[in-house]
Amino acid sequence: MTSRYQVEDRAAHFWKELFKRWEVLLLGIFVMIFVFNSLHSDHFLDPYNLADSTFNFSEKALLALPMALLIICREIDLSVAAIMALSSMAMGLANQHGLSAYELAAIGIGTGVLCGLMNGVLVTKFRLPSIVVTIGTMSLFRGIASVVLGDQAFTNYPTEFGEWGQGYAWGIIPKEFIVFLVAIVVFSLLLHATTFGRRLFAIGNNPIASRFTGIRVEQHKLFLFVLMGAMAGLASVLLTARIGSTRPNMALGWELEAITMVILGGVSIAGGIGTMLGVVIAIFTMGMVTYGMSLDNIPGIIMTILVGFLLLVTITVPAVLRLGTVRKE
């Protein structure tokens, strides 16, 4: 057999393996949703509407990117939405003392960092399960924000501050969407092009073996929790700037949507597997679903039901497929 036939076999194998990838399947779902919405609504393809649709998911996406790193590392943070509420409350209190927009942003992100540090220390120093720790801190952070705010709301933020969440670049692209695009590049490089990223996969696959190879598992996890807190603080800055107020129920339930984006993107809940490309496609897919439903004036509670359904399906289907493979063997 000549080398020419060997090349053809490899090409066929390449395409077969390509279409088995979860990211390709997810991209196909995204295209189908996009085409369906385009045919269903006359306003869907309006460039200004499409640009404004990114407001619906940019802040949640800033939670999903670091959440993917945590889940790959076999950890999770359920307190991210509560961190956003607490960071916004801190900015609201600071705003009453006349601080500048940049100082408010620093306080918001700094509050997120401290919350993430608290989660990280409890998980890594005391070897507590992250799901239990972050359920506790979720109640703690949300409770503090509720007690301080009561049924009131902080408003009257500086105009410059509001511009960060409501403004546009080049007259059409929301500024917070540009922040999201920059975050995609940074997190993709961090996970797929650095030694740090390769260590996260090693920790997720086998944390005990990783310790024996000299990887500082606890330090890596502590950094991820602090990073998660910082990104939640940044998301809080953008959300507060966009809506121009601080309320105790802000970002309620967003931790569920962020986790759904990550799992739908192909990141294994058991850790060690996942790509940033899959997470980004999942973010845009859910964003287009939300945008299409909003054009039909479908209530938000239906979106909550859909998110819960997607989360159950994306967790259950791989488990069922693995079970089928084991039975065949």
UniProtKB/TrEMBL annotation:
TM spans (from-to): 21-41, 99-122, 177-201, 222-241, 261-289, 301-321
UniProt main location, coarse: membrane
Membrane topology note: Multi-pass membrane protein
Record's keyword terms, sorted: Cell inner membrane, Cell membrane, Membrane, Transmembrane, Transmembrane helix, Transport
Compartment(s) of residence: Cell membrane
UniProt cross-references to InterPro entries, sorted A to Z: ABC_transp_permease
Coiled-coil region list: none
Keyword hit for Membrane: yes
Keyword Cell membrane in annotation: yes
Superkingdom classification of source: Bacteria
Quaternary structure note: The complex is composed of two ATP-binding proteins (LsrA), two transmembrane proteins (LsrC and LsrD) and a solute-binding protein (LsrB).
Its biological purpose: Part of the ABC transporter complex LsrABCD involved in autoinducer 2 (AI-2) import. Probably responsible for the translocation of the substrate across the membrane.
Protein name: Autoinducer 2 import system permease protein LsrD
Higher taxonomy: Bacteria, Pseudomonadati, Pseudomonadota, Betaproteobacteria, Neisseriales
